[in-house]
Amino acid sequence: KQCVFNPTGNISIVCIDCGLKNNQLRILCQLGAKVTVFPWNHPVKQDRFDGLFLSSGPGDPQTQCRETITIIKSGITSETIKPPCLLEGTQYCFIASQNHAFAVLTSHVDKDWSVLFTNQNDLSNEGLIHNSKPFFSVQFYPEHFAGLRDAKNLFQIFLDIVQSYKLAKPINAEKYLVEQLSKRVNGANAPPPPPAFCSRLKKVLILGSNGLKFGQPGEFDCSANQAVKAMNEDNISTVLLNPRNRRNSAEPIGSDRFRRTLILLSLNQVYPYAITPQHVELILRMHKPTGILLSFGEEISLNCGIKLHE
Fold first, then answer.
1. Is the pLDDT of residue 150 over 90?
2. Which of 222, 241, 272, 281 is a good FRET partner for 178, with 20 to 30 A between their CA atoms?
3. Distance (Å, rounded) from C-alpha 71 to C-alpha 230?
4. What is the pLDDT of residues 13-31, one digit of tens each?
5. Does pTM surpass 0.70?
6. Residues 99-116: pLDDT tens digits?
7. What does the alpha-carbon distance between residue 4 and residue 199 come to, in Å, rounded to a whole number?
8. According to the model, what pLDDT value does residue 144 have?
9. Portion of the chain with pLDDT greater than 90, in percent
10. How many Å apart are CA 29 and CA 292, to the nearest integer?
11. Distance (Å, rounded) from C-alpha 276 to C-alpha 60?
12. CATH tag, 1-73
């Protein structure tokens, strides 16, 4: 079954739904595109669209999305070039929401492709771009509106490239993408210097993710780990409130070994309690941190911060 959104749009985009996020549709429509959504295994013909958009999705693509892979291969090898954007991940010192289950091994990437983004936490690949054709991928969520929107203009870049091919005036996708992204961090758009109080930070409280109930879906909570690591590198002591155990991690946040390591190395403290204003207030009185980091624990921590502010 197909669904059409913004039917009067001036650019026709076909979206293959592998786990489509509503904000992906909203942004494409707001930018003037007509978006036709097809199921992940629906064969799509080249003459049906101006550009192809592959949404992000869960699972191992090699075992669960073979039909999708066949569709994308036909588009890449076709003599008729229609620019697809494969939503899968990216890093560029831009801040974007992401969740790693699988990543591309750059050592196995074909010579026709180049690395577009690299994650600075674990150096995993976050995006690829074709050296001559208008194909690029990202492995994060540029449509995510939970915080900063550093990568939102990737949608406009994608539509600009599609439009150039539709008008038979193709632009160099790699050069144009890098130029547009660079504008986000240079000149008038350069980020401001850190506030003066940052140099006075000695200790911060990090709010992680809340515990899970039976039957409730959940993701790995590696964000708090990375926050602790980053603070330690800047000689800032941390207090971590995080009740969730990462069973599939080599170093679960709530494990005794993880807690002992933190305490021995940097005198950090880990509290495996529910994230509530009452618990946070107790920790604030005990440790008197300079500030609180809220953005490493999903909605629970953000909502707790709002309640504390109120």
1. no
2. 222
3. 41
4. 988 888 888 888 999 999 9
5. no
6. 666 778 888 888 889 888
7. 52
8. 72
9. 12
10. 37
11. 36
12. 3.40.50
CATH number among 3.40.50.880, 1.10.10.10, 3.40.50.720, 2.30.29.30, domain 75-194: 3.40.50.880
Q: In three state form, how does the secondary structure of the chain look? A: CCEEECCCCCEEEEEEECCCCHHHHHHHHHCCEEEEEEECCCCCCHHHCCEEEECCCCCCHHHHCHHHHHHHHHHHHCCCCCCEEEEEECCCCCCCECCCCCCCCHHHCCCCEEEEEECCCCCCEEEEEECCCCCEEEECECCCCCCCCCCCCHHHHHHHHHHHHHCCCCCCHHHHHHHHHHCCCCHHHCCCCCCHHHHHCCEEEEECCCCCCCCCCCCCCCHHHHHHHHHHHCCCEEEEECCCCCCCCCCCCCCHHHHHHHHHHHCCEEECCCCCHHHHHHHHHHHCCCEEECCCCHHHHHHHHHHHHC
Q: How far apart are CA 14 and CA 34, in angstroms?
A: 8
CATH number assigned to the domain with residue range 203-307, chosen from the 4 options 3.40.50.20, 3.40.190.10, 3.40.50.700, 3.30.230.10: 3.40.50.20
> Domain spans of the chain?
1-73, 75-194, 203-307
Tokens (6 digits) for 94: 């831009």
